[in-house]
Amino acid sequence: QVQLVESGGGLVQAGGSLRVSCAASGRTFSSYVMGWFRQAPGKERDFVAAISRGGGSTSYADSVKGRFTISRDNAKNTVYLQMNSLKPEDTAVYYCAARSGTYLNIRERDYGYWGQGTQVTVSS
């Protein structure tokens, strides 16, 4: 089992950058595929990015490809989402999630562990 705590959200102007982090408890962090999802007001929670257990493989939603970078530090039990060239439509609550297994799934239901979320607001 793993517990996840996000941090680093905030208010940023369009075109700016922000990095959100997700710290995991437990000694088995490296056995989980990690993902980031986001939920804007009145919308469903959508996939943003995922990273393999060792960090060698990543997957991104088309809407963030080339602007966002997911990474992880297994020694620190932490996964990051670096967000550059932010747009107002990136405004959402950002959640990190963990799943057992190998594949970089993009479906919310494939992730068994979730953090509480961190708010990211991009002003125009």
Counting DSSP E segments of at least 2 residues, the number of strands comes to 11
Global geometry: globular
Average pLDDT rating: 96
Residue stretches low in confidence (pLDDT < 50, at least 5 long) are none
The end-to-end span amounts to 40 Å
Strand percentage: over 45%
Specify Rg, calculated over alpha carbons: 13 Å
Helix segment count?
0
Share of helix among residues?
under 10%
Structural class comes to: mainly beta
**What's the story with the biggest beta sheet?**
7 strands, mixed
Report the order of strands and helices. EEEEEEEEEEE
What features would you highlight for this structure?
mainly beta, 124 residues, 7-stranded mixed beta sheet, 4-stranded antiparallel beta sheet
What report would you give on this structure?
- It is globular, with a radius of gyration of 13 Å.
- The mean pLDDT is 96.
- The chain contains no helices and eleven strands.
- With 124 residues, the chain is mainly beta.
Topology, element by element:
Blueprint: E1 4-7, E2 10-13, E3 18-24, E4 32-39, E5 45-51, E6 58-60, E7 68-73, E8 78-83, E9 92-100, E10 113-114, E11 118-123
Parallel strand pairs: 2-11
Antiparallel strand pairs: 1-3, 3-8, 4-5, 4-9, 5-6, 7-8, 9-10, 9-11
